Amino acid sequence: MNSLNEVVSLVELFPPPFIFINDPISPKYTIQYLISASEDKIRLVHIDGTSCFTPRLLYDTILNGLSQHRPSWDEGCRNWSQETANDSMDSFLRALKALYASLCTGSSNKGPRVALVIEKPERLKERMPDILAPFTRLAELSNLELSVVMVSEARWEDIRPPFGSAIDPYYVDIPVPTKEVIIEHLIKTFERCSRDFNLGSTSTTPHPYDSVLLQTYKHFIYIVVDVCYLYTNDPHEIQYIAAARWPGFINPVLDAHSMNVEAAEDDNDIEFERPSTELLLRLTRHFKPSLSLALEQLYPRLTNAADWARANESDASSLARDGLILSDTVMDDVEEEEDTVNEMLFSSPSRPRSSKRIQEQKVAQDLSSSDIKDTLPLSVSLPRLSQFILVAAYIASMNPPKTDLRLFGRGTDEKKRRRRATKRQMANAKPKSGPAKIPQRFSGPSPFPLERLIAILGALVEENDPIASEGISSQNVPADGLDFRIPGERTDYEVTRVGVYASIAQLTSLRLLVKTTSSDKLDGLSTMLKCGSGAPSSYETILSLAKGLGVPLPDLIWDTAAMG
Amino acid sequence: MVNLDDVNETAYYIPYEEQSAEPSERSLPLHLAFDLPNGPELRWNAYKSAWDKCLNRIQTLFHELYEPVVAEVVEKIESAYNDDNQSDFTSLALPHFEIPTIAVANSSSADPYFLSSVISQLRSIAHLYPSDCVNLTTAMKFIISGFLSTSGSGSSYKSSAKILAAYDINVLVAWYSAQKADTRPRNLVLLLHDFEQFDPGVLQDVLYICSQHVPSLPLVVLISLSSSQSPLSPQSYLHVTYPRSTLKLMRIQSVIVPSGPRVLEEVIIKTFVDLSSVNDELDIVPGPAVLEFLVEYATRFNPSVHALLNILQLAHLKHFLTNPLTALVSLVPHLPSGINALSLESTLQEPGSTDFKELLVQRLTFDRDDSDNYNLTSSLPALTRAVHIACSQFRTRTRSIRLAYLLLQGLHGFLSEKGYKGLGNHWGSTTVPAVMSTAAQTAASTLSSRYPQYLSLQNYINLLQLHTQTHSKQSVKDITYARTLLRKLRPEELRAYLNTLIPKFQELQNDLGVDITTGDDDGEESSNLNLAEVVRMLEEWRTEAEEVYRAYETVETGTRERNMNETAVEKFKLLKENLAEWMYEYLGVLTTPIESGPLWDVYYTGSAVFPSETLNPSIRASVIAGLLRPKDFVAEPPSRFSHVPAGGDGYEVAPHKAHAGQKDTQQDNFAEEENGDEITDDSEDDSDPLHTLPDTSVLFHRYLESGKMINVYDWFESFHTVIGIQRRETNAKEGGKKRKGKAANGIVSPAKKGKEKAKESDLDGDEEMNDHGEEHPESSSDSEERHQLLVQARFIRALHELDFLGFIKHTRRKPDHVLRTVFDVGD
Prior knowledge:
- The structure holds two protein chains of two kinds.
- Chain A is of the alpha/beta class.
- Chain A folds into three domains: 2-173, Rossmann fold (3-Layer(aba) Sandwich); 179-314, no CATH class; 378-415 and 439-563, no CATH class.
- Chain A has helices spanning 2-13, 27-37, 55-66, 89-103, 121-127, 132-136, 138-142, 156-159, 179-200, 214-228, 235-263, 277-298, 305-311, 316-321, 328-347, 351-368, 370-374, 378-381, 384-398, 404-408, 414-429, 440-443, 450-464, 466-470, 476-479, 489-495, 498-509, 539-549, 553-556, 560-563, and strands at 18-22, 42-48, 113-119, 146-152, 170-173, 448-449, 513-515, 528-531.
- In chain A, the strands form two sheets. Chain A has a five-stranded parallel sheet, with helices on both faces. In chain A, strands 6-8-7 form a three-stranded antiparallel sheet.
- Chain A is flat, with a radius of gyration of 34 Å.
- Chain B is mainly alpha-helical.
- Chain B contains 33 helices and eight strands.
- In chain B, strand 7 (808-810) and strand 8 form a beta hairpin.
- In chain B, helix 1 packs antiparallel against helix 11.
- Chains A and B meet through helix 3, helix 9, helix 11, helix 13 and helix 17 of A and helix 2, helix 5, helix 6, helix 7 and strand 5 of B.
- Chain B: Keywords: DNA replication, DNA-binding, Nucleus.
- Chain B: Residues 40-328 form the Origin recognition complex subunit 3 N-terminal domain.
């Protein structure tokens, strides 16, 4: 973080008009660091490229931020500037000069150092491409001593306005955060938390962020970083995981302390001491497996930190097994039931214990993933016809249209056709020269017209759905006066029902199917659909659906070899 | 009013009415034969009250069902910003504050009850719909104005250049901090309706901007997902669509609203089968046909609340529209308090109601074969009395069938609780359908049985059809099997079973208490269920069972001598036998078909065919049929009411209606092709000659004969010929000329023509048009030119009509050709 400190001093002493900081890992962290480092020294406005999505918002944010003006509701959300300052670059520059002049009070008649920190400048480029170049030259245009600092994941070469209209920035590249940087950041977080907490409450009972525990926390952090650094080096992500695990990690120590306090009622306060090394090792051994679990579930945000921490609290018995419940009273309760286990543990110290722990971990995993298990498979939550439609959509998405007749055509020469199809398939499997064709599986579902979906659906329903071919219910057949003599005609009638179209619309609203053409275009090309991302385009999901329906899916996929 | 009996009339045209226009006159059902003078009105009112009752019941049930989930969601929202201690420590050290987000699966806007009851319990809530989210500016504007409008002062915000923009979230921040501390809402709920429909790009930015201002702005995002997947699974829409950078801004908690087959079945069973609501009976009892269609539709198409309501409403509507006797429902309410004999009598005395009266007498005498017909026709009080008796008898019968179902279900539940198989897999693996576990469901869904998910309902339907079932008498088997099972009970089980059975009967007796006395026994079938007697008998058996059990207990625990208490063994055997036999006979009595009572069709839809084609028509088939045989659709439908009760196949179907005819016409077309250029004038069946059809139909006939691509010019040519015949026909009629034979030879189908003129067809159409004009030099008069123009105009209009209907697809490569989109099965 030395380079950042350099930036701060540079801005303070001799501000370059334009600095570009490229941080591909964690720009958010860089900005936070920058803001905290330049506190009191530089008047700094933080502008966010996403939040300021129109020039007006951008100007308002900068002016209100620099003047530290908070629009209040009672004044009708008035801006800082009395005049209209947000309709063009010119009026903005005028207002900026006026603002700077108003800041230049006091004897020296010298204003504070001013810097604009722009986060996500690439979003500004997307939305207002014309505004980026003037902003790089803001010092020049406004004739003020200010610097513009852009912090981005992207490189300047990718954002730079064309024709050299922007001046070249002072480049700063932030290296990938090392373990030391991350640890330092986490320790700072700990200190901040312990400060915040002490300010907030007056109680003397120790809490997870008690300053006594700092050394323990350092130890904990080393382990967390060790486990996670391989997968992510964003300090914020590791902080997230640490935050989720730490209260649970230290809880046995806190419990033990409060029990000691209770036990020794009459004595004066028992000093809260940091846990011994031995205890620390035990804690580590107990909780280390759950760290990788935390990474697995928290990094992709399958759950959130608070819920994960709640779901992964250790129960007394597993703690006791690892010797983590320090008070004798509780130990007694547990010991009785754990006696046999302990004997076994002592006789063969390592193996059963570890297997126990793995079991524990499994239980924990089951608990925390119970939400996922709640999910009903599509085969239950969808009505039968919708399942057919999904299978048909998958086939239509994965097969080239010219294969439909080969796969579904049933005529007098059915056998011939099918055999040829299989022969071709064999030939396909052989290695061929020429550019390698990307299997459909890797290129994703391709769009198909609605009519093709209906046609394939008809073929599937005709061959695999006895209900449709025998008629909705037997009593209906004489009543509706329909007489289907040609084979397949009944199915044809069934699959063009309103309900089928309604089901397709329903699946589209669930995003299991995706409409690729705009809905307001009635004329011209027919509606195109494709399988939605996720479940409906995964072979496994559709295969299990097809199995439930009795559809031989592997036979109906042209490029089976590529499906794996 | 529409005719729901006509299976061919599947789509209705509802003319557009301007909003400002006066509401048109209340339309009443058609006047039927044998109807009362004010029959339509009576039936309409009866329909409305009956349907309202049913709807109310269903709504209440859904609200009850959703209540815990609603409470959970509200609780999560309320506690979003004041968490307990433990998570406080966790969130203290987080890198940034996360927006509390509650993702509710299964809560699509299609479900009318869930979201509305959540919304009703929240104070400040802003709704965001996918259509509001076309871009970030409008989305933010909608959010901010949504919140501002929750307080009175907010609505007056007018944006100008000197103040913050209306889409600036700082407006919301300023507004919120200006609220008085005591009246300030604890949190601001942003409800995202139909989450799957949102543009993810816009929503990502919205969420990002919101996340910059929590927790000073206590936003809670409530996501309404239509899919039933848990929002936290890695395959869920949320995780598949949104990047991690967005997901990490939110603290997502998931709630799953119960839905799908389980819920639907539970509601149906509770509405129509459970006896707990017996004192507030529904007016109409849906018969097996309706229930079966309901199950069918829910399994195949749509298990939603809307579908359920639609089907039931349609069943009610049809019931009241087609049977004049249903007017009795409003005249003779079945509740004792509502009995108003006078109204029935006075109505029947009116002069216009003689037909109705006759029909009523006929029905009554038809149903009961005893001989006091004379009485009924002559004396009005006797007639009304007979109607009342019929009414109460009907109630008793429906109740007994439901009781029979509950008894069987109870026995099955009891046995499967004890670990037996019970009555078999088709009764479900657990007693209550609501708590069917996920595992059981998945297992059930893989079964190849026809209705895997609606087992309980199917069993009830089987019971209703007990005596009409032809293929498999499943219910008869079940009842017999129940007897066998009861005979095999062990002493302690017998005791336990009686212990569960008796309270049920007692409860039932209490519920029915009032009603039982009203059934006036008139030498007719007794109208009560003999509950008191049953309870008395069962209690006797229970004391016996108690004794036997005790005897057995001492045997087993004591000396273990088998021979000790022979009398007890005998007694036990006898007791089991008695119980089994009684149960068998009792069930037999209870399951007397509802149809066997008098006037059952007034209250019961029986096996009348459900108008499924109305709910789920095959529109394309109708359109094609309409184009092929337009005259069948224009023709006035004949009045075809028959007063035969709706059971079985009571209604005849007009054989000559559109769908029926569709096939024949197609056959004609094939025949036509074979015969070459022959026109259908003299074809032997009743289909109309081509030139008498409307233009669009003429074009469509030719369309069906052509290949995959149609040359428009050839099409026009053939159309022109047909019009020529048409013209000559009219001329012939007017002037008596006969040139028909010559014309007939000139007709060529586009397919034929296409082959002949394959090369010519690439030429410019206009040019050919001119050629065409020159081909007939003998008709080059002024009127002929006008005729040409007319034909062209008619052709173009018909072509566009087909285009609008979606039968034509244009290609860019061949502008003078169009693609066919519809093919016959035979093609």
